[in-house]
Every structure is written in structure tokens, then in C-alpha cells.
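> call design_seq(struct)
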């Protein structure tokens, strides 16, 4: 079995490495210290056309696969960004896959073209009032009789300080 990268994969590796290295270790240290989302980093990847790597070409993406996404994420980590850089980009690659594989044509046409150009989040994450970034953490259970929509606008619980 040949594990050598193809010419296209090698180009992906080089291009992603070059783009990632535009963000210094000091950039990542500051983001960590301030607990900030790397908006500029994600925007640079959006502008470079990398967010749609696994989206089929018919919906505005590159139509590439898991191997190419893994190469991209590896190079992001290797640049010094680590998972602080790879995780935000990861969310443009893998979470849309159920839509790509199992979504209706209507759903694919509506949602998939937005992903390669979006910097607001690949998925419509619920936003809590006053939240700076989307979050996956659900709030406390909604009161009986309230709709699930009310849950998405509820105030999130305070973090536990054990």
C-alpha cells in the first residue's frame, strides 16, 4: 500500500501550512490568554476557500475527502495553532457530513453553499442572549409547557466551580 501524498494532497499541505503560519505563536497565546475565538484565523481560511473542503462541488465546495481534511487539520496543528486553530476549522469539515450524505436535495441546496463562505459558524448554533460566540452547551431544561425554541433563547447555566 502506498501512503505517499498525491500531488494535490501535497499542494494542500503546503498551502495550508503557509496560511497557518501567518498566525504567530503570540497570536495563539493572546487568544488563549483572553479566551477569544480566532475570528481572524477562520476568516483567512474562509477567504482562502478552505472551509468548503469536503462540501461537494455541486454546492460550492471543493468536493475533497477525509484524507484531505486530515492533512489540512494536521498542518494547522503543526503551525503552532494546535487544536485552538484546528477545532474551529474542523467544524466546517465534519459536522456538515450528515447533510452531505443523508440530507434531502432541498436541505443540501439551502445549507451547503453557505458553509464555504461563512465565518459565523458552519452550523446554526443556538445563541444565548449576551453570548459572544455560538455555543453547543445547552441551558437548563426549559420549564414545562415551553417550546424547544424557548430553550434556545434561555440564559445558559453558570459554570460549576467545584
Amino acid at each position: 500500500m502506498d501512503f505517499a501524498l498525491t500531488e494535490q494532497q501535497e499542494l494542500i499541505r503546503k498551502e495550508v501550512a503557509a496560511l497557518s503560519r501567518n498566525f504567530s505563536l503570540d497570536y495563539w497565546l493572546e487568544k488563549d490568554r483572553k479566551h477569544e475565538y480566532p475570528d481572524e484565523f477562520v476568516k483567512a481560511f474562509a477567504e482562502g476557500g478552505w472551509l468548503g473542503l469536503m462540501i461537494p462541488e455541486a454546492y460550492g465546495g471543493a468536493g475533497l475527502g477525509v484524507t484531505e481534511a486530515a492533512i489540512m487539520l494536521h498542518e494547522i496543528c503543526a503551525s503552532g495553532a494546535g487544536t485552538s486553530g484546528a477545532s474551529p476549522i474542523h467544524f466546517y469539515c465534519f459536522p456538515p457530513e450528515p447533510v452531505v450524505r443523508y440530507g434531502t436535495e432541498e436541505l443540501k441546496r439551502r445549507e451547503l453553499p453557505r458553509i464555504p463562505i461563512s465565518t459565523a459558524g458552519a452550523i446554526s448554533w443556538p445563541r444565548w442572549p449576551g453570548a459572544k460566540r455560538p455555543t453547543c452547551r445547552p441551558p437548563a431544561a426549559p420549564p414545562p409547557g415551553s417550546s424547544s425554541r424557548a430553550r434556545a433563547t434561555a440564559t445558559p447555566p453558570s459554570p460549576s466551580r467545584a
